[in-house]
Amino acid sequence: MEPQVELRDVAIRYGTKTVLEGVNIHVHQGQFLALLGPNGSGKTTLLKLLLGVLQPSSGTVSHDGQPARRGSELHYGYVPQIEDVDWSFPATVRQVVWMGLRRAGFWPPWPTRGDSERIESILERLEIPHLVDRHIGELSGGQQQRVFIARALVSDPSILVLDEPTSDVDVYNTENILHLLAELNRTGQTIIMSTHDVNAAATHLPWVVCVNRTIVAQGPPEAILQKEILDRTYQADLVVLRQNGQVFVYEAPHSHTWTELHPKPVAAHAPFDTEAGEDLVH
Amino acid sequence: MVGAMCGALGVYIVLQGMSYIGHGLAHAVFGGAVVAFMARWNFYLGAGIWGVLSALWINSLSRRPEIKADAAIGIITTASFALGVALISRARSYTPSVEAMLFGNILGVDIADLLVVAGVLVASTILLLVYYRPLLFHTFDSEVAQVQGVPTGRVSVVFAFLLAAVIISSMQVLGVTLISAVLIMPATIARMLTVSFGRMMVLSILLGSVSAGLGIYISFYLDIASGASIILLQTAVFLIVLAWASLRQRGLHTSRLLKNAAG
């Protein structure tokens, strides 16, 4: 079967600066794939290549075996990073989800009965029907993510793409969002997301692509989350622990301790520039 | 009519954070208007072509990653305005019609001008209704709108055309130097009064048209420029709403503190 999306030997360059090169990825119907890498590794650029927002400097992007072009059958639902959004924008949850509907034309300029039913059904599916008339700025981080996922899903996209959906949300909401995405994937939804949270990828995601300017490695987390691969991806000394079939990754402690780096720390409530402050420390 | 058109377009301008575009485009159009005036062409033809080309050029320049929108507006519009000033100073004939272009003069409006304003009002109402949803999505989040099937390029071009047409048709009443305030002020006041996009649009149109009508009456009785009178009236409303919003915010803050203290 042809992959839904295929990137073959793709590179992106801005002048003499190479942002990504040697990228080969194929995404099949129903796959759940996470792009994993540190900030600035090219994950968002790679997502924008997949979405068609950026064009490759070299290499090819194909949809269902055909060169990618505007107006193809394949269409995306996109959830951007929530910190890029203007949350003071005067819009309710209903209006935001309505924006995402694909319709044959632009008329009428208000939600039809069919639109409203569709909006309510998608909010029901994401368990936030009670938020429908709330202003988007009043919502919590987790609720905002759900509203944006609803906007992306409202037109039954071929592929759901999420840029760092778990950044800027707490542990509880991270769990909830990843659980929700797993549920959506179970119904056949193809999902591509980016994340720098290696432990979330290890615990929840079935296929991981490590990115740092190129594809470092890709495969299921138990095969990919190896020290050597992660060190190359994050350019850091990481410790990988395996326990009861689960993988945990954390940064190796530095050779210098905190007190070596800060031999005279200022005590809490210590007055500035007085010897009394030093007395409090010692 | 001018107040309603500016009120409606102002909502999109304010929410896109591009308040400077009205100011800039009005100055750019001035260059074209002076060229048309000197060459004895039709004002609307000269200013219209010039305005639309400036708007499209700003739009295409601001898409380049190395040039931000404010820089693109600044470069094109000040260059165009400078050309207009250079031509006037060369001709040394600072006539009342040029003064009307700069500061607005309701008494200089004839039936042809009124027909142009009415035509632009009808066209902009139809286009704003047809493009309501894509323009809303494009204003809120242009990149996602593009990914999810909104023809953002076409939407930007339509909006640039509309803005140029509204500015040119409003120039006789409001003047180049004051037009941007009438674009921004009603939408900003409306934004302070509501968190709903639809209500913001209705309020902005109402504020724009009522203040324009009252402002023209005031300008007639006080014998001052119509543009200045409309803007001074809108500024008064802005200051009242600002004071009310500040008091309301302080009241909410105090009641929250009392509630926390009681809880």
How would you describe this protein?
Chain A has helices at residues 43-51, 93-99, 113-125, 141-153, 171-186, 198-204, 221-224, 227-234, 258-261, 275-281, and strands at residues 5-14, 17-27, 32-36, 58-63, 66-67, 76-79, 159-163, 190-195, 207-211, 215-219, 238-243, 246-251. Chain A has 282 residues and is α/β, with parallel strands linked by helices. In chain A, strand 4 (58-63) and strand 5 (66-67) form a beta hairpin. With 263 residues, chain B is mainly α. Chain B has a single domain (2-262), classed as ABC transporter involved in vitamin B12 uptake, BtuC. The longest helix of chain B has 37 residues, at 226-262. The mean pLDDT of chain B is 84. Chain A binds chain B through residues 14, 51-53, 75-78, 80, 85-86, 89-92, 95-96, 98-100, 102, 106-107, 109-110, 135, 137, 151-152, 155, 157, 161, and chain B through 15, 65, 129-134, 136-137, 140-141, 143-149, 191, 194-197, 199-200.
Q: Care to give the gist of this entry?
A:
The complex is a heterodimer of chains A (282) and B (263). Chain A has 282 residues and is an alpha/beta fold. Helix content of chain A is 31%, strand content 25%.
**Largest sheet geometry of chain B:** none
- Provide a count of the helices of chain B: 12
Number of domain units of chain B: 1
Largest sheet of chain A: 6 strands, mixed
Q: How far is the N terminus from the C terminus of chain B?
A: 53 Å
CATH topology of chain B: ABC transporter involved in vitamin B12 uptake, BtuC
* The CATH fourth-level homologous superfamily of chain A: P-loop containing nucleotide triphosphate hydrolases
CATH names the topology of chain A as Rossmann fold
CATH architecture annotation name of chain B: Orthogonal Bundle
User: What is the class of chain A in the CATH system?
Assistant: Alpha Beta
Secondary-structure element series of chain B: HHHHHHHHHHHH
The gross shape of chain B turns out to be globular
Number of helices of chain A: 10
What would CATH call the architecture of chain A? Answer: 3-Layer(aba) Sandwich
In terms of per-residue confidence, which ranges of chain A show pLDDT below 50 for 5 or more consecutive residues?
Answer: 272-282
Terminus-to-terminus distance of chain A:
70 Å
